[in-house]
């Protein structure tokens, strides 16, 4: 029942943090799916919940195993996923908090998840009367403009995720000004692009994208400033927290070419110029701030 905290970064990069659901001992009305920053779902006597980026998975809860503390969630457009839960997991039915003992199969559910090591852990489970919504963050594997089928990878599943993209779906870049100043739209859905997509299910149970945010495309340049929160000089990787958007970014660097990297320490405040290569951010310069 204990889950070990680990920070897992999708494709070597953790971006677009969604705040962890807030804990409440009781409910007097509809509860939000996501809680304000700084809130927690920790339970006294249990380890802290994983603090990585959370993702909302919408689908059908087919099996609940209270012995193994896991449920099977059939996500639209892919195979069922095993999701772990425990006493720290908050459960709601149409916005009202219910007991974990009342958790059971449901045709419509939205599950706020986070990676805990290699496991998918449920921060909160929302049983819904209506068709659920969800969102994925991942890298584009392909987009077919004829069939309008978008295929992307996800840290939450080994299988690719397929979504329909109607012509009316807004596609926009988000992030730094230099990146968002161009507005290509659907042409940004190239292999390797990092995106955040919100979706709903249609009557056939297929995921249909209703909003796509493009976070990075291969070759795009970025400048990050912030404090180093993790550093591995041997592998050439660092993680910094950029105070501009309060997000974590993992950046790879060549310690032989960038001599300044050899004097880096956790806690240093730095400025990094980098480009996204379709998998990771790669530093071209690193300067102490």
Which terms summarize this structure?
289 residues, mainly beta, OB fold (Dihydrolipoamide Acetyltransferase, E2P), 18 strands, 1% helix, disordered N terminus
Topology:
Layout: E1 54-65, E2 70-75, E3 81-84, E4 90-93, E5 96-98, E6 106-116, E7 119-127, E8 133-144, E9 149-154, E10 157-164, E11 171-173, H1 177-180, E12 194-201, E13 207-216, E14 221-232, E15 237-242, E16 247-252, E17 269-276, E18 281-288
Parallel strand pairs: 4-7, 11-13, 16-18
Antiparallel strand pairs: 1-2, 1-6, 2-3, 4-5, 6-7, 8-9, 8-12, 9-10, 12-13, 14-15, 14-17, 15-16, 17-18
Explain what the structure shows:
The chain starts with 53 loop residues before the first strand and ends with a strand. It contains one helix and 18 strands. A hairpin with a 5-residue loop joins strand 12 and strand 13. The strands form three sheets. It has a seven-stranded mixed sheet with strand order 3-2-1-6-7-4-5, with no helix packed on it. A six-stranded mixed sheet has the order 10-9-8-12-13-11, with no helix packed on it. A five-stranded mixed β-barrel has the order 14-15-16-18-17. With 289 residues, the protein is an all-beta fold. Among the domains are: 134-216, OB fold (Dihydrolipoamide Acetyltransferase, E2P) (Beta Barrel); 221-288, Copper binding periplasmic protein CusF (OB fold (Dihydrolipoamide Acetyltransferase, E2P), Beta Barrel).
